[in-house]
Structures are given as C-alpha cells and as structure tokens.
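Example (one chain per record):
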Amino acid sequence: MHASRRAPRVLAAFVAGVIVVSGSIFGGSAATAVPTTSPKPTIMAALGDSITQAIQTCSSLTTCAANSWSTGTSTTVNSHATRLRALTPTQPLTTYNNAVSGATSNTLATQVTKAVNQGAQYVTIEIGANDACTRTVAGMTPTATYKANIDAALAALSANSSKREIFVASVPNLLRMYELNRGSSTARFTWSILGLCQSLLANPSSTSATDTARRAAVQTRVNEYNAVLQASCAATVNCRFDGGAIANTVFTRTHISTRDYFHPSLSGQALIANVTWPTTQWVS
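Predicted structure:
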C-alpha cells in the first residue's frame, strides 16, 4: 500500500467478515496431510498489496517478499508456501508474488491475469486496506464498487480453471492498529510525515466527536469489505475465506512495524500465516 497514494500504506496489517477484536493470536498449527479433495499445487501465486509484499520487514519503505505470509521463504514466518512444501517435500512448488504496494481492489484484475498466465493452481488474495486508507473518508472505495471488483477477480480466476484453489484473507482491523500506537509520539510523527492513511490517522491525538466518528467510519467500511469477501468467496467455486481470522485477531504492538507503525512486522507476517493456514483448503 502507499501512504495517501504516495508512501506505503497499510498494515495491509492486518485487516474481512465483520471485524470483532477477539480470539487467540496464535491459534492453529500446520497440517500433516493434504486433503484428497485439494491436491497439493505445484504453482502458487499471491495477489494483494504491500502486506503480501511484506513491506517494512527488511528495511524502511522497501518490499521484502521473502518474508511474505503467503509465498515467503523465511523460516521465521513459516508462510503458506513453506507449509505446502512441508506436506509433500518431494514435490516442487513454484511461487509468484504478484502483489503490488499501494494496490486497491480496482487494480486486482491485472494481478489476476498474471496468476492465470502463470498457471497458478493455488491463489491467495489479501486486498482492501488501501481501499479504506485514502486521504479522506469520502475518498474510500464505495462498498458496492469494492464488491464489483472482488466479484470480477474471483470470476476470472474460476473461469480459467475449475481446479484452481482460491484463498481469500480478511482485511486487518485498522482501528486497532491506530489504537495500539496512538499514544506514541514517534508513531504519530511517522504517520504525519509519511501521510499514512489520513482517512483514519489524521489528527491522531484528537478525541473530538468528529475525529472519533471519522475513524469509526473507516473501520465500518473495512467491516463491510470483509462481509463482501466472505459472501463473494462463498459464491465462488473452490474458494475458501479465512473466516475473519486476520480481522478478528487481537494483534499487539509487536506485530506492527516500528518503521512506519502501520504495516505488519516480521512477527506480524508470521502471525498472519499462522492464523490463516488452519482455515485453508489444505487443512480444514
């Protein structure tokens, strides 16, 4: 994601379904066998934004795909790709990280085309934080538009292969990210200087009714996006939604990068992989 379309934006942290801040932050474990209905893929593609590119986990303002929760190779993160390889070690797995920092649902179609052309048999999608993180609340992607973009992407993935498995991750709770670091002067300065997610993070110290309502409106829109992801995935063949695993995870400050106080840290990427993996086709 980008800050106000300029600098990397979201905690693309972690926010689908209606967001409820509850649950264990380290639930689930890797599967020991591949379900017969979902043969292990040999080609995998990740779609999304800077969250899936693991921005801020190597150095400031740069992407670091090796640490991605989806296709990363870092043993610390233990990504979906790493866990898939562990299921059948003798079978090769080629991965592509097509996610783009700053991507919104409106640009997802381009990534879908790449995944189809790459012959991906397993595709992960994490998108929506940038749709909510804009300069103003009025600039957020309307829920109906977001739904149309998601439906089009899922339809394109399904139309090209009845055997392609799709995994849709929920959008992180952006309001929780703000609340965890709003008391930090360093975080507030960083949000301001980078122009990060001003629809949510403008006037971060303010407790006025207007600013409180503005932040609530952003989270409400994220909740709506998550509801769209759940319903749209349910209507798509071979699509698995994470059940709100990311959205409902009570992440802590350690899971947020101290480079921008917005994106997932290395441990945050590991957390995303850990809470989403048990909800995939390969486990449940």
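Caption: The first helix runs from residue 80 to 87.
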